[in-house]
Amino acid sequence: MLNRVNAPNDLSAFWMPFTANRQFKQSPRMLVAAKDMHYTSADGRQILDGTAGLWCVNAGHCRPKIVEAIQHQAAELDYAPAFQMGHPIAFEFANRLVDMAPDGLNHVFFTNSGSESVETALKIALAYQRVKGQGSRTRLIGRERGYHGVNFGGISVGGIVGNRKMFGTLLTGVDHLPHTHQPAKNSFTKGVPEHGAELADELERIVTLHDASTIAAVIVEPVAGSTGVLVPPKGYLQKLRQICDKHGILLIFDEVITGFGRLGTPFAVDYFGVKPDIMITAKGVTNGVVPMGAVFVTSEIHDAFMNGPEHLIEFAHGYTYSGNPLASAAGLATLETYKEEGLLTRGPEIAPYFEEALHSLKDEPHVIDIRNIGLVGAIELDPIAGEPTKRAFSAFIKAFERGALIRTTGDIIALSPPLIISKGQIDELIDHVRAVLRAVD
Ligand code: PMP
């Protein structure tokens, strides 16, 4: 057995992602083990996981069923290609995923991450329009404050300036809808905000500007996660769907965060009752344990490709690790765990408790807004003048010192604990946040 690796003295070789490397390496925060709701830090402390890793470990850490499935699969069939070859477990996993997916999303394309799922979905949308004889539909519509991973398609349709500005012109032919955050009207809303459905009408404006015959697809996160848990206003997603239908535009939901129980329902599609043509997932699909993504499409899209000339590869796209056996095994065990423990439908039981606990922070220092849906929430802080992000980041550091992992984006604290969290642990998490809000400058 491999033993736990002690932190080396030299941390310079690993260029860490989305991290202030110089700052981190002066005072590193290391996690060395995990179990259920907790990490163990290198100095031996138990850290309550308030963010399910990076919004992905929905069933909690080191779950025996998932661990065993991976061990067994690694010994049985470690790797097999999925190009012109098959292995049963990937087909089995696809079947189980389709069984639990919203009606009509009947086919799955496997990737290795959320970012790859985004690129895959955009390429399916563009290729589908061509296959249907509508090759002039090449324009993609994203949204301000959208996060769709870090690859070129994703940062092009995404709406985070910091992730875009260093990388040149990106994809051409992309427009953005306005974001749906309306603090003046909706602050401290519990759940779905009342105001703002009309923001979806901006899609009509874009259609008028460019003509529908040039637009392939609209991509949005049903709930924008990474930019601070922006819950769509009542009726907004329905409107987007209607406008897309009216103009023959595909609707893509990026459910990388909202998928697999985060909103208290299996998918955001189930929560809002609005169905996209393509649904992007990753993270919770394998409980974050082995990298994997899954893009769901309707039969209409899938069949349009399959009905082409027989001798051709229908879609010139795929990854060495698409449907990887280890990831598929982890995914199957993850779905079983979700099912056995009812984790994807815990909303009615646990979400109201989480909501009340979160909103009890309303009168704490620096708090200017609180938002929530299902088991995800955000606490927005008043930024320090001239030093945006500093206050929330300081809260993150203090929370870690106290024994809780929270996440910050700008001056927003986000909480998205594993779906196994108990009411007592929700109280504990909120108490940590309360204490750090009182302690930060
Ligand atoms: N889409 C959304 C909505 C996400 O939240 C994320 C990751 N947070 C991604 C895409 C990218 O996923 P990954 O980091 O696995 O590439």
UniProtKB/TrEMBL annotation:
PROSITE patterns: AA_TRANSFER_CLASS_3. One of its GO terms (molecular function) is transaminase activity. Keywords: Aminotransferase, Pyridoxal phosphate, Transferase. Pfam families: Aminotran_3. CDD domains: OAT_like. InterPro entries: Aminotrans_3, Aminotrans_3_PPA_site, PyrdxlP-dep_Trfase, PyrdxlP-dep_Trfase_major, PyrdxlP-dep_Trfase_small. It comes from the Bacteria. Its cofactor is pyridoxal 5'-phosphate. SUPFAM superfamilies: PLP-dependent transferases. Belongs to the class-III pyridoxal-phosphate-dependent aminotransferase family. This is Aspartate aminotransferase family protein. It comes from Tianweitania aestuarii.
